[in-house]
């Protein structure tokens, strides 16, 4: 098994799903998009995630999507993908096995689907261990997804799970650098990597020991996130690193407007052939939002020139 922490140090895209204008998965565009991430230097792929509109896909579409990404990647980097969508633990375990059979490096467990929002941490822990028991030796990871609700894993619990040897990936959305630092201090085990989603403290997280970044900003300019992962600790590049960090902070709000329509539009403007169609109801892509995204592209182009 590939050591996730070593093999995928860097940026892992939370992949978009391209659709045709009629709403079907556009597998040709998915090929182009996957190759775009690879050319940017992505260290892995997170397929079938929230950015992929996974809740708007059927079970068979989820599996088709994952298989296609794995085929295009062709072993170049590891692929992880979500495998839990609610229901009894036995039912979730069955789909975890199906996702694993596609060839994923790890199957991602959505924390908010392993226990109800009102359930205690003890109930959540019990369900996690039940799922591990029902899925044999399959490597897994966690995603603190904001849908259906955000359930954060405490540093102590993350250590508990990582110590089983089954957990090799964690996509963190706690937005708290001190929690990140504590998670990294406690949950330290060869083969495990924590990937941060919150770009406001990206540099601090990388310096604290995160295995990399896994963020929506990579669906606008993946090569910039790769650059940051490669240069965050380069003493000769700290002025530019600070410039990139501030750019990500300054542009955060605009990138969240009616996402992922905005990221698809942005990639379209960059020359990638894909539709802005989304199945997920995220709001209206107005001319004003389009103007803001055009401005983001202009600012990013200037930043690229500064970074040379």
Give the % helix. Answer: 40-55%
Number of strands: 8
In the predicted model, the low-confidence regions spanning at least 5 consecutive residues are 1-8
Could you tell me the strand content as a percent range?
A: 5-15%
**C-alpha geometry:** globular
Biggest beta sheet summary: 8 strands, parallel
Strand order of the largest sheet: 1-8-7-6-5-4-3-2
Rg over CA atoms, rounded to whole Å, is: 18 Å
Q: What's the average pLDDT?
A: 96
- Provide the succession of SSEs: HEHEHEHEHEHEHEHEHHHHH
Label the structural class: alpha/beta
The number of helical runs is 13
Distance between the termini: 37 Å
Spell out the blueprint of helices and strands.
Layout: H1 4-7, E1 10-11, H2 27-40, E2 45-47, H3 59-73, E3 79-82, H4 89-101, E4 106-110, H5 121-134, E5 140-143, H6 155-162, E6 167-172, H7 177-186, E7 193-196, H8 202-208, E8 212-213, H9 222-231, H10 238-250, H11 252-256, H12 261-269, H13 287-307
Parallel strand pairs: 1-8, 2-3, 3-4, 4-5, 5-6, 6-7, 7-8
What does this structure look like?
This protein is an alpha/beta fold and 308 residues long. Helices cover 46% and strands 10% of the residues. The chain has 13 helices and eight strands. The chain has helices at 4-7, 27-40, 59-73, 89-101, 121-134, 155-162, 177-186, 202-208, 222-231, 238-250, 252-256, 261-269, 287-307; strands at 10-11, 45-47, 79-82, 106-110, 140-143, 167-172, 193-196, 212-213. The chain has an eight-stranded parallel β-sheet with strand order 1-8-7-6-5-4-3-2. The protein is globular, with a radius of gyration of 18 Å. Residues 1-8 have low confidence and may be disordered.
């Amino acid at each position: 098994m590939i050591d996730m922490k070593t093999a995928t140090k860097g940026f892992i895209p939370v992949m978009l799903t391209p659709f045709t204008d009629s709403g079907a998965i556009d597998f040709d565009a998915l090929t182009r998009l996957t190759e775009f991430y690879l050319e940017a230097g992505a260290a892995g792929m997170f397929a079938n995630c929230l950015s992929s509109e996974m809740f708007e896909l059927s079970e068979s579409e989820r599996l088709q999507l994952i298989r296609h990404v794995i085929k295009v990647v062709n072993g170049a980097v590891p692929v992880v993908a979500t495998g839990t969508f609610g229901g009894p633990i036995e039912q979730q375990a069955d789909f975890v096995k199906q996702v694993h059979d596609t060839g994923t490096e790890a199957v991602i467990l959505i924390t908010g689907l392993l226990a109800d929002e009102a359930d205690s941490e003890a109930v959540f822990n019990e369900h996690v261990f039940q799922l591990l028991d029902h899925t044999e030796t399959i490597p897994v990871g966690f995603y603190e997804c904001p849908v259906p609700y955000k359930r954060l894993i405490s540093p102590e619990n993350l250590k508990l799970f990582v110590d089983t040897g089954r957990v090799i990936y964690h996509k963190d959305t706690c937005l708290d650098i001190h929690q990140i630092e504590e998670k990294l201090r406690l949950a330290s085990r060869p083969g495990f990597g924590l990937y941060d989603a919150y770009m406001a403290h990206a540099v601090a997280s990388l310096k604290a020991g995160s295995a990399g970044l896994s963020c929506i900003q990579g669906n606008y300019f993946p090569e910039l996130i790769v650059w940051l992962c490669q240069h965050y600790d380069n003493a000769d590049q700290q002025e530019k690193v600070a410039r990139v960090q501030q750019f990500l902070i300054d542009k955060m709000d605009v990138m969240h407007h009616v996402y992922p329509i905005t990221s698809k539009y942005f990639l379209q403007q960059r020359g990638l052939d894909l539709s802005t169609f989304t199945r997920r109801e995220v709001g209206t892509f107005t001319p004003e939002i389009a103007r803001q995204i055009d401005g983001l592209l202009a600012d990013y182009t200037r930043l690229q020139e500064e970074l040379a």
